[in-house]
Fold each of these.
Amino acid sequence: MVGDFQVTMEKQSSFRASTMEKQKSFRGFMEKQKSFRIVMEKQLSFMGSERKKNKESPGKRGDLPIHLAARAGNLSRVKEIIQNYSNNETKDLLAKQNLEGETPLYVASENGHALVVSEILNYLDLQTASIAARNGYDPFHIAAKQGHLEVLRELLHSFPNLAMTTDLSNSTALHTAATQGHIDVVKLLLESDSNLAKIARNNGKTVLHSAARMGHLEVVKALLNKDPSTGFRTDKKGQTALHMAVKGQNEEILLELVKPDPAVLSLEDNKGNTALHIATKKGRTQNVRCLLSMECININATNKAGETPLDVAEKFGSPELVSILRDAGAANSTDQRKPPNPSKQLKQTVSDIKHDVQSQLQQTRQTGMRVQKIAKKLKKLHISGLNNAINSATVVAVLIATVAFAAIFTVPGQYVEDKTHGFSLGQANIANNAAFLIFFVFDSLALFISLAVVVVQCGGSNLCRCD
């Protein structure tokens, strides 16, 4: 029994020894894994820091140390850098731009470091403080876009005129803040100058247009409280803020825009579309329902294409909107007997008169041309007849001259053959006869008159040809 007990004890001690060895080897393995993990973490941490360092390195953005300190919000470092420069050099330093056109004030404003902004502003004038980056934003704009209220307070305290600066599209900081929905920034800027809400972008859109389109209800309320008349301002397309709002999906904004004056419901854009036309075209079912619930809505208004909202719904294939509009009493343009438009009638009348006048002028020109042709033909006939008459008279005159000339040398009767008193040899016996003398005179006259007629006719013929 004692021997068996000793054997059992030896087995247990050997088992314990082997177990302890396994545990030691396992611990060694775990320590190796832990050390390996620590090494990998260090490597990853080193790689991450290197990446971050490369991202913020001066080589990528062209940042100077002052840019890096301002971007990080390191106020002590900013002060330290500024103290190394004289007053004149400090202004030049703070006007330096990186590759993106950003100044130290810009990067501090963008990242919301109000204390750094306040420190930098001590050394700047308005011109330097309003230097814009390549994206068109100046420090004030970028702070408004990011919603950094305290930064804007610091900027307004030093340079209130920064609120009036505009970007490439003629947008103010108020416009930028309203588009992003930063209600606190909007209220701050409206308190500084309520006229900012009246400044429109290059496309004619006001702050209210953008806020309504983006669905920022509180911004819309703040703008309307300052100036309710902005709801009637139109952009270059002739659209109001209500036209823009119906393109979105916030019904409460529609109610706010109509509340100051329901007449805005009837305003048309350059194509004659009301807000109901636009909502129908965009397929905004809830907005259409909201508009139809308003008392002053003209459900059958026609645009310049002669389309009612129901026509638009059918055109764009929206059965649900067609049903909603029909239930509300909407009609097609063909179902309405609308009196003719006076302006269109006037245009048509003017067009008809213009056409008639042009037609009469054309006929007058054609008649004048025909009369000229007839006159030319008559003139030719006249000249031809005159020439024929001249030729005929000339022929007769030549014949008369010929006969008269021959008659002078052809004396009738006998000639004197014997010399007698009062006569010469070869003389016609009738030479001294009174009748012959009369004949001779008239024959001579006939000859010379006919010759004169021939000369005159030939001269007149030449004159006619010259004409």
Amino acid sequence: MKPAEYWQKRAEQVGDLQHAKAGQYTKSLYKEYERAKRGIQRDIEVFYERYASNNGISLAEARKQLSSGELKEFKITLEEFTDRAKNNKDGKWTKQLNNTYYRTRVSRLEALEMQIDGQIRMLAHKQEQGLTDLLGDVYKDTYYRTTYEIQKGLGAFTVSFAKLDTVAVDRIIKTPWLGGNFSTRVWGNTDKLASQLSTTLTQSIISGRSTAQTSAELAKRMNVSFRAAETLINTETAHIVTEATFDGYRESGVVKKYQFVATLSERTCPTCGSMDGRTFKLSEKMTGINAAPLHPRCRCTTVASFPDYEDVGQRIAHDETYVDGDMEYSQWKKKYVD
């Protein structure tokens, strides 16, 4: 059986690989945020060009009703948003769009708010889909790599472990934890952002801010929202890494205990530092208490803890199909998974 250093190094490598994927996805989401900000800026510019005078625009002027021609133009925009909202799972956005569409009186400010709201809800839909893909991949890769590392470390490769299917993985990554799942948190953050942008927009008009000033204020709110999204991505990734790792432990049939491993650095929080090296039974695992993430952006991990006997590797050979020796992960996956 491999020494303790082997297990810790391998666990950290698996975790680092998954967090690197989260980092790549965060970069792509940043581009989507920038695209949404540009769209909002264009909406603001059109609004001011159409309705503002040299002295800006008053709240009373902003609250005037759209003309029949403007209302017709606005409803075309609503139709475009409605088409894109078809995959909105709870249907709330679609209902909101439909309710507005059938109104005969819509103010200029309401129309602008709906356009901005549409931009950020399209962004949320992309984020939800992106996280679904990311977390599904993270779960599968972590589960199989954990299974592989246990088998390799114990010196016996076997087919005796559960294979994953798409439905099962989707159910696992969407299982609520600590009051919600990634989807509810994405849309919760979006509702919060929508409210903040609406308030900021009204305050900008009341304060007589220019087009550039208003756009800048809204961009600040978007930047704060992106940082919250980044935290969500990292935290949800850490949670799924933990879930997949523990499922790998359970499936092995030999791992009964685990050791908490803190990512030790000058930024390690006291809570994680105090947990480093502590051993628990698998049955005692509690996310946020003795299993990562203990806090937002937590990068801690765990390692399998084995009973102290020499030939533990033979216990994973539940059937007659096992091979002692070394095999690279890609070879193992091709032979036993794909």
